[in-house]
Amino acid sequence: MATNFIRNVMFPPRIRLRFLHSSATISSVPPPLPTIETSSSSFTVEFLVNSCGLSLKSALSVSKKFQLNDKTPQIPQAVLELFKSHHFSDTHVAQLIVKRPQVLNCRIHDNLKPKFEYLVKIGFEGELLPHLILSNTDITRVSLTSQIKPSVECLRLFLDSDEKFLTFVKRGSWLLTHNMKILLQPNVDVLVKEGGVPAHVVERLLLLHPTFILQNPERLINAVNSVKNLGLETTDTMFIQAFRVMLQMSESTWKKKIEVMKSMGFSEDDILKAFKRFPQCLACSEDNIRKTLHFYFNTMKLEPQTIIVNPALLGYSIEKRVRPRYHVLKVLESKKLIKGIKMWILVIGEKNFCDKYIDQFKDEVPGLLEFYLGIKEGKSLMLDGEELQQRNRETERKGVTRNMCVE
Question: Is the separation of the CB atoms in 202 and 191 below 8 Å?
């Protein structure tokens, strides 16, 4: 009874009947789904398309996670004007907005403007500034005073010229938004004080491989000692390359690669000689090392000693460089246009190879260029008789030129 009383007080019979009737009506005829479009989202899409140069599709995508306030349109407009005054092209602006649309709500006078002025002052003039910002959009977010300036000042302690500093930042702009005092100083100290690495070598490491500063200091000193134990001193020309390769693998991985090389017929002394000549020869995976050596030994019939003397051969792509060149040379050799296959032919640049061994013999061997490009794409290796002539006609029809030989 108590339940019925409460129900009658809260929902009198007349109201209950009306509610039930309306519910039945609603359930029997479902209303169409509403299209929710606030004035703010409409303004955002319109501004992104008309003022920022985004496509409608990109603008709609951006508007799903970011909205402008239609009551303060002067804020994003002022941001765009600032960009334009600092050499941001329409393309730069569109790319930046897609990456970080929140920049349109950034404060001008106590954020973007002083930050841009500082970056220009330290060397990022003209189009260097938009390129820098696009490479690391977090620069628009972090503090100039507590983040960017301290990082720049720390880096300048180790890079002795404006040119070197700009080179470093172009390659590692993301480091400007990291704490350089915490990341850089301990790693430099361990390399110089414990590893005996000269300051100019550390500087070169910064310029060539800036990511090394993200490593644990203990890992750095282990890599330095491992390279030294192989007989490379910190002043040797190959030290930096060997250090970088050693830094990328664990001791167990190093041992596995050595075992792979041994299983293919090399002695450990030979392997270490090759590594000191060309450290990148052990940078690839065990599987790639095995496949590369298999081609050299079983297809090209090279001897292990040839690899030791020319360890750079292990750094070339078999599928994209070695195999295509090898088969072109075999065709030329079969037609007595060249005598034998010399190793230096695999080493020369792509343009030189095309000039000397494809363009020079295109009349004697019609379709040679297409044959070469086809092997790069994993196609048939046939090149004789009627098929050769057909390939040549197809090549001329498609307008294939030597400019297609790109490295």
Answer: yes
Choose among 257, 399, 378: nearest CA to 318.
378
SS3 category, 97: helix
- Say which residue, 230 or 14, is predicted with more confidence: 230
Instruction: Return the amino acid letter for 144.
Output: L
282-299 mean pLDDT: 94
CA distance 42 to 33: 19
Q: How far apart are CA 371 and CA 377, in angstroms?
A: 10
3-state secondary structure 285-309: CHHHHHHHHHHHHHHCCCCHHHHHH
Percent helix, percent strand, percent coil in the chain, to nearest 5 = 70, 0, 30
Rounded to whole angstroms, the Cα distance separating 5 from 7 reads 5
Q: What angle do CA 59, 62, 67 make, to 5 degrees?
A: 100
Distance of CA 404 to the CA centre of its chain: 24
Name the least confident of 121-130, 152-161, 250-259, 272-281. 152-161
Mean pLDDT of the chain: 84
- Please say whether the beta carbons of 395 and 367 come within 8 A: yes
Looking at residue 30, the DSSP 8-state letter turns out to be: P
Q: From residue 309, give the alpha-carbon distance in Å to each of 227, 270, 289.
A: 20, 9, 16
Mean pLDDT (whole number) for 181-185: 85
Q: Is the dihedral of CA 287, 293, 294, 296 positive or negative?
A: positive
Q: Which of 71, 64, 7 is nearest to 40 (CA)?
A: 71
